[in-house]
Amino acid sequence: MSVRLVIVDDHPVVRDGLRGMFVEQPDLEVVGEAGDGERGLAVAVRERPDVVLTDLRMPGLSGAEFIRSLAERVPSARVLVLTTYDGDEDVLPALTAGAIGYLLKDSPREEVFRAVRAAAVGESVLSPVVAARVLGRVRTSAAAAPAELSERERTVLALVARGCTNKDAAAALFISETTVKTHLAHIYTKLGVSDRAAAVAAAYGRGLLS
């Protein structure tokens, strides 16, 4: 069964290039594309893709706003960022908003293919530069932060590590999304982080997740 993919990028040449790349992969099918977040959201709502491959800085919605809106409107779609921007002001908001992966546009095509396949099954993929930034933030805050998580907090964090959205986690645990958000807020405080990706990285680093 093929992975259904939507491409969102404001440069037509980039979209054409990506579409041409994916044609070579029989298990990866481009079902739509858009040049900005608003159109991208409409296409994703219509097509219900498995993965949305998106740039960050585009006309209209910011990258984080687009990712957040997509998580609300099409929670089954995994968002994989493909961009030239690797600063904290881009990486961290995107991951916090719900992106499951973050690649740079100089990534080899095989790495992009692997990342799309991984995202489709809920696995996080970060480029080495981005991973270094996230882990750097974890190390900076790890020493002073307490790390005693309750059993329910560990369960929520394990679901997040598997790529579950707040809605997915709520459904799996038979609780409300608000309760999931509350658990995540407590987890962030205890681990000394401020986003999902950093929380997962910190938990693995401290042996809280296996």
From TrEMBL:
Keywords in alphabetical order: DNA-binding, Phosphoprotein, Transcription, Transcription regulation
SUPFAM superfamilies: C-terminal effector domain of the bipartite response regulators, CheY-like
InterPro entries xrefs: CheY-like_superfamily, NreC/VraR/RcsB-like_REC, Sig_transdc_resp-reg_C-effctor, Sig_transdc_resp-reg_receiver, Tscrpt_reg_LuxR_C, WalR-like
Keyword match Transcription: yes
Signal peptide residues on this chain, from the entry's feature table: none
Keyword Phosphoprotein: yes
Domain spans labelled Response regulatory: 4-120
PROSITE patterns, A to Z: HTH_LUXR_2, RESPONSE_REGULATORY
Gene3D superfamilies, A to Z: 3.40.50.2300
Modified residues (4-aspartylphosphate): 55
Highest taxon above the source species: Bacteria
Pfam family, one: GerE
Every HTH luxR-type domain range: 142-207
Name of the molecule in the record: Response regulator transcription factor
Organism, as annotated: Nonomuraea antimicrobica
